[in-house]
Specification:
The chain is of the alpha+beta class and 283 residues long. It is 35% helix and 22% strand. It is an enzyme of class 2 (transferase).
């Protein structure tokens, strides 16, 4: 498992395969996630090396062929890493990504922008929050749109996979309340399951969302200005089942767990996207 030996082995293999592609006039090729099964090689090294070397070989040999990466079912961590590396490498993929029409171009590459109060976008979010909170707050200070392109693309890849696998759209708009410090971390690096369990794990050890903003409000904390924050997130529910505290990951054959009512628990970081952050004051 020496990292350099692993890298060189992958480079040599891909070079030989590409030579065979040319010799046999193949128009497509499929690679497994080499060494990520029973050999338990580093997923990071394997995926980065494969993506980089395949791209390099295609460019220097001027090849035009379809390349597929085959990942075993339920190896979500490997799938996530391939998505991340494909996007960051500017590798041309067959998946089409369209950023939301509401997103604004920011010269400073800002990933959080304040939504203007006189827009339909603001009014829609305000009305949803106001109804869900049942007037149990004083006022909204601001609504920020989160424009984390890398995270959004990973989420979109999951959305495409869920839609293809389940033959229906299972996306929901749900709330997630948290401390201001946690919100800042989430905006930069998505919903991190390593923090799961901070407020309990009654329906599974994952990230909790609710369609009931008043419920999510319980998990917010006021900052020095008495302001609280809550995300309105896009969440892929997929096939869900009743959860319990012993579930450290999703049950086989399911994508999330639930209380059977308004709570949903996800188990993969890119399974949800924090679309808006609502900053408000409670009564």
């Amino acid at each position: 498992k020496d990292p350099e030996i692993l890298r060189q082995s992958i480079i040599d293999l891909i070079s030989n395969v590409m030579q065979n592609v040319i010799s046999c006039n193949y128009t497509s090729i499929a690679f497994p996630a080499i060494g990520c099964g029973k050999h338990d090689c580093s997923v990071d090294i394997v995926v980065k090396t494969m993506i980089r070397e395949v791209k390099k070989q295609i460019e220097i040999r001027n090849l035009s062929c379809l390349v597929k990466f085959i990942i075993e079912p339920y190896r979500q961590n490997i799938y996530d890493e391939f998505c991340k590396q494909l996007f960051s490498s500017n590798f041309h993929t067959s998946m089409e990504f369209h950023l939301p029409a509401t997103w604004q171009i920011s010269k400073e590459n800002k990933i959080r922008l304040i939504v203007s109060k006189d827009t339909d976008e603001y009014k829609s979010i305000f009305n949803q929050f106001d109804e869900a909170m049942k007037k149990g707050y004083k006022k909204i200070i601001k609504i920020e749109r989160i424009q984390n392109e890398r995270w959004f693309m990973q989420y979109t890849a999951h959305w495409t996979d869920f839609k293809k696998r389940l033959n229906k759209d299972t996306e929901k708009r749900l709330y997630h309340g948290c401390r201001e410090e946690a919100a800042n971390l989430i905006i930069e690096d998505c919903f991190n399951r390593s923090f799961a369990g901070v407020h309990g794990t009654i329906y599974g050890v994952g990230v909790y969302f609710s369609s009931n903003a008043a419920y999510s409000h319980q998990y917010t904390n006021p900052n020095s200005l008495e302001e609280r924050c809550m995300f309105l997130a896009r969440v892929l529910i997929g096939k869900t089942t009743k959860g319990n505290g012993s579930m450290k990951t999703r049950p086989l054959g399911f994508d999330s767990t639930t209380d059977g009512n308004h709570i949903f628990v996800t188990y993969h970081d890119a399974q949800a996207y924090a679309e808006y952050l609502i900053t408000y004051k409670s009564k």
